[in-house]
Amino acid sequence: MEKIFSRTKGLTSLPFHYCPGCTHGIIHRLIGEVLEELDIIGDTIGVAPVGCAGFSLDFFSCDFVGAAHGRAQAVATGMKRALPEKLVFTYQGDGDICAIGTSHAIHTAARAEKITSIMVNNAIFGMTGGQMAPTTLAGQITATSPYGRNCQLAGNPIDLPKIIATLDGAVYVAAVSVDSPQQIIAAKKAIKKGFQVQQAGLGFAFISILSTCPTNWGLSPVESLKWLRQNMLPLYQMGELKATKEVSAL
Amino acid sequence: MAQVVILGEYCKSCGLCLSVCPKQVLQISDKSNQKGYYPVEVVRAEQCIGCTLCGLMCPDLAIEIIRT
Amino acid sequence: MKGNEAIAEAAIRSGCGLFFGYPITPSTEIMEYLAKKLPQAGGTILQGEDEVASINMCYGAAASGARVMTASSSPGFSLKQEGLSYLAAAELPVVVVNVNRTGPGLGGLGPAQSDYFQCTKGGGHGDYRLIVLTPSKGQELYDYTMQAFDLADQYRNPVLILADGFLGQMMEPVELKVRSREELPPKEWVTDGCRGREKRKIASYALTNEIGEANCLYWQTKYNQIKDRLQRWENFYADDAEYLLVGYGTCGRIAKSVVLTARQQGVRLGLLRPITVWPFPEKAFWGLHERVKGIMTIELNAGQMIEDVKLAVQCKTPVHFYSRQGGMLPTEREIWQAFCRTFQLALTEEEL
Q1: I need a labelling partner for A166 at 20 to 30 A (CA). Which of A111, B68, C51, C99 fits?
Q2: Which residues form the 4Fe-4S ferredoxin-type domain (chain B) (predicted)?
Q3: What value of ipTM does the predicted structure carry?
Q4: Partners of chain C (3+ Cβ pairs below 8 A)
Q5: In chain B, which residue's Cα lies nearest the Cα of A59?
Q6: Domain residues of chain A, as ranges?
């Protein structure tokens, strides 16, 4: 009688407030498990965004700080500079980091801040009710692109990990997804590496995770996973976009 | 083999676990939890092979798996 | 030493561990000085990508319990307003400097006091307040900055040093006094990793309106407590004064010369120089209306502090206004002539 699968100590016992089938929850689990496995719950401070994950402060067992919308990486920078021997990570939605937070996304990477940044990309602003985000796909219908995102009018989706990978300060950049158990296992590896890179103080680690938003996509949880596979996966460069020699040697 | 334990109050009846279980061990029940969701229930316990795919896929950590 | 450098030296001597900033005239020397000297003092300085980044870096650093400072000038200070609201709500002690330059818009580099409302009434969203100190000379830039760090920790609130371009750029002798270690509350709220203790969080949202109101009432009680204990001003010949000048910072300093001129002419003029403009020193004005016939505020804006003075005297005494704007400074004579015209006092021959 041995439990081979149960709630990680990296998470509190609080049930999540996310919509049914929203894969934020899976990502929380992966981070919680990584925190537990690396035994860093007591040495890590998380920085939460504003958005669906804005209330994630109470879900994680580690200390957590809530940042203003888009500012998580700036807050994390200040915290890491103040506590260089502690581990700091940011957890942001695609709207939080690709829209308002872009300047910090670029400069945090450019300065090789020794933090681990996680972007959860569900191609929409979830919390505010499904508005178009910079990552919204061409033709995707949202509350503010009711006729489908018109690229002449509102531009094309941004592939942030690809951009971040061009910055020397970013020593590890991975683009993963949680749309299937196999992808989830790969995502966990990437998250774990992201924290190990920080433990080794090698530079800035960035992990982008494709995620679903059944409520605002207007699809069932299971259909959302399919939609993600058919529409988002082909659009973005996936896998380990960048890993310096030192990172690969970890 | 293995046994799936559903934590009914955490489950939001999203069905992701059903979609990945190779042995159709689980099914949406007809009794609602306090929040009004109809949690998943184990219907073919003996079929469970302990692959933990359901646990991996659950966004609310409503599933525990025990190796018997 | 230059005013800006006095602020920076005071920060170092106050144990300021981190500085985050962005270049903007006329406050940049603060960052330049710290870039040279803070690392040797074991501190960290980082130039952010913009002022929004800098204030949010302060948020993160302050959450660790370290002493943190940032500095800017009016346009940059405007970019920090959302961050300041978050700092006040999360009750994070940070020392912020605004070397007021002329505005609105790009404005100019000259001294001004046109950010008064933004600093004292809150430029960001929500009912929050910053403790605001207004130095009027080099020594005070040094002394008030040191006090600011203690006040920030004592009240767990951001504290603002409101200077102006003139003060920041002017060179003056400054005595680098050592400030006695004040007894400050321990920081049991820092989020520096929960190993060996309960998990903590620092945030400013309220999930329900009930919690929201409870938070607001708590903040207001704190601000009322500060308002009760922390009103500071300088009383210069004001005890027997029939007329009063009110001015802070550079204007407060110039006004002193006017008071001395008046006294030589036999006019009982005095000066109340606010040291804190939030909490505004209302106590200094209580009961004045029996004795004081008229008040004139001297400001470098279109009339902002005058409203607080009128409120403090409940309009029982006429409050007049004299100002220069756009970076111009009033001369002592100018103020004296304006004062005499306003209160129909006989000007001596050579002034006319």
Answers
A1: C51
A2: 2-31, 39-68
A3: 0.95
A4: A
A5: B60
A6: 24-128+160-209+237-248
Helix A72-82 with A102-110: angle, nearest 10 deg: 30
Averages of pLDDT over runs of 10 residues in chain A (250 residues) are 93 97 98 98 98 97 97 98 98 97 98 98 96 97 96 96 98 98 98 98 98 97 98 96 95
Task: Calculate how close chain A gets to B28, using CA atoms only, in Å.
Answer: 13
Quick check: C115 and C162 in contact, CB under 8 A? yes
| Cα angle: C74, vertex C79, C81; to 5 degrees | 95
Torsion of CA A99, C18, C132, C86, to 10 degrees: 30
How far does B25 lie from chain A, in Å, by closest CA?
16
Measure C341 CA to nearest chain A CA, in Å. Answer: 51
Q: Decide if C42 touches A, using CB distance below 8 A.
A: no
Res C350: pLDDT? 55
How far apart, in whole angstroms, are the C-alpha atoms of residue B4 and residue C15?
A: 56
Domain A24-128+160-209+237-248 sits in CATH 3.40.50.970: yes
State whether CATH 3.30.110.30 applies to domain C233-342.
Answer: no
Q: Is C194 on the interface with A (CB under 8 A)?
A: yes
Among C59, C200, C204, the residue with its CB nearest the CB of A75 is: C59
Q: What is the pLDDT of residues C272-305, one digit of tens each?
A: 999 999 999 999 999 898 999 999 999 999 999 9
Q: Determine the pLDDT at residue B46.
A: 94
Tell whether the model's pLDDT for residue C271 goes beyond 80. Answer: yes
CATH superfamily membership of C3-179+220-228: Thiamin diphosphate (ThDP)-binding fold, Pyr/PP domains (3.40.50.970)
For chain B, domain boundaries: 2-67
**Which residues 12-31 of A have a C-beta within 8 angstroms of B?**
15-16, 18-26, 29
Structure tokens that stand for C25 in this block: 């005239």
8 A C-beta contact, residue B13 and residue B38: yes
How close are the terminal C-alpha atoms of chain C, in Å?
38
Tell me if chain A has a CB within 8 Å of the CB of B50: yes
Using a CB-CB cut-off of 8 Å, the residues of chain C touching A83 are 64, 192-193
C269 close to C255: Cβ distance less than 8 angstroms: no
- CATH number for the domain formed by residue range(s) B2-67: 3.30.70.20
- Structural tokens at position B24: 């159709």
C18/A45 touch (CB, cutoff 8 Å), yes or no = no
- Checking if the pLDDT of C346 tops 90, the result is no
List phi, psi (to 5°) of A206: -130, 125
How far apart CA C333 and CA C330 sit, in angstroms, is 8
- Which of C58, C86, C193 is facing A78, going by the closest CB pair? C58
Please name the member of A6, A22, A222 whose beta carbon is closest to the beta carbon of B19.
A222
- Using beta carbons and an 8 Å cutoff, which residues of A are at the interface with C? 12, 41-45, 47-48, 54-55, 57-58, 61-68, 71, 74-83, 86-88, 103-104, 106-107, 111
Give Cα separations from C306 to A47, C239, C323 (angstroms): 42, 21, 11
State how far the Cα of A204 lies from the Cα of C297, in Å rounded to an integer: 53
What are the structural domain ranges in chain C? 3-179+220-228, 233-342
Distances C124 to A82, A119, C84, C129, C223 between C-alpha atoms, Å: 26, 28, 7, 10, 16
- CA pair distance C15, C30, nearest whole angstrom: 16
Phi, psi of A152 (to 5 degrees): -65, -35
Torsion angle (degrees, nearest 10) of CA C70, C158, C253, C242: 170
